[in-house]
Amino acid sequence: MHQPNHKNATKMKVNVNAKVKTLRAYKLIADKARSRKGDLPVIKDPLAAYDFLMSEVYDPAEIDVVESFYVLFLNAGNGVKGYIKVSSGGVNAVIADPKVIFCAALKCLASSIVVTHNHPSGNPRPSEDDRKLTKKLSEAAKMLDIVLVDHIVVSLGRYYSFREHGELTFN
């Protein structure tokens, strides 16, 4: 009979607890999103999304320092139900895990999402990795009956919208 290594068992317990805490955080976000009353900001177009992102989401002290990835959760009328910061990265990269994005979207019953990240360089033109991620998220969203409204890359005073540039369509 093989005896479990207690060090690994402890690590496993910590990992399970971390996952539970993460899911609780998504539930809290979902509960807040579902309970919001009154007029929700509406994302009518990429400029409206950029304005909302710059006024409500991004930290002006960080936007030109490190990359951050966020998701806006929208209702059927494109009203903003809420948002989360998926991750922070370095000066020229950030990781966005589709499982994390769609777990949160499903928890708050989002009809659609807008994903966004910043380029501290000041040049919002997307990289090839940005394009690959957008395609991957678009395909996953379709499977879940969630609309990926846009992927917006922002920098101070400028943005790049995949939708505006025809790289993301409603299909």
Short key terms for the protein model shown above:
single chain, 171 residues, alpha+beta, Cytidine Deaminase, domain 2, 21% strand, disordered N terminus
End-to-end Cα distance, whole Å, is: 55 Å
Quantity of strands, as a count: 5
Strand content: 15-25%
Instruction: Give the strand order of the largest sheet, numbering strands 1, 2, ... along the chain.
Output: 2-1-3-4-5
- CATH architectural designation: 3-Layer(aba) Sandwich
Number of helices: 4
- Tell me the name of the CATH class: Alpha Beta
Helix content: 25-40%
- Write the element-wise H/E pattern from the N-terminal end onward: HHEEHEHEE
Q: In terms of per-residue confidence, which ranges show pLDDT below 50 for 5 or more consecutive residues?
A: 1-20
Determine the CATH topology. Cytidine Deaminase, domain 2
Name the structural class: alpha+beta
Number of domains as seen in the coordinates: 1
| Radius of gyration (Å) | 18 Å
Biggest β-sheet strands, sense, barrel: 5 strands, mixed
Average pLDDT rating: 84
Coarse shape: globular
Q: Assign the CATH superfamily.
A: Cytidine Deaminase, domain 2
Descriptive overview:
- The protein has a single domain (6-161), classed as 3-Layer(aba) Sandwich (Cytidine Deaminase, domain 2), CATH 3.40.140.10.
- The radius of gyration is 18 Å and the shape is globular.
- The model is unreliable at 1-20 (pLDDT under 50).
- It contains 4 helices and 5 strands.
- Helix 1 packs across helix 3 (98-107).
- 40% of the residues lie in helices and 21% in strands.
- A 5-stranded mixed β-sheet has the order 2-1-3-4-5, sandwiched between helices.
- The longest helix is centred in the N-terminal third of the chain and has 30 residues, at 6-35.
- With 171 residues, the protein is an alpha+beta fold.
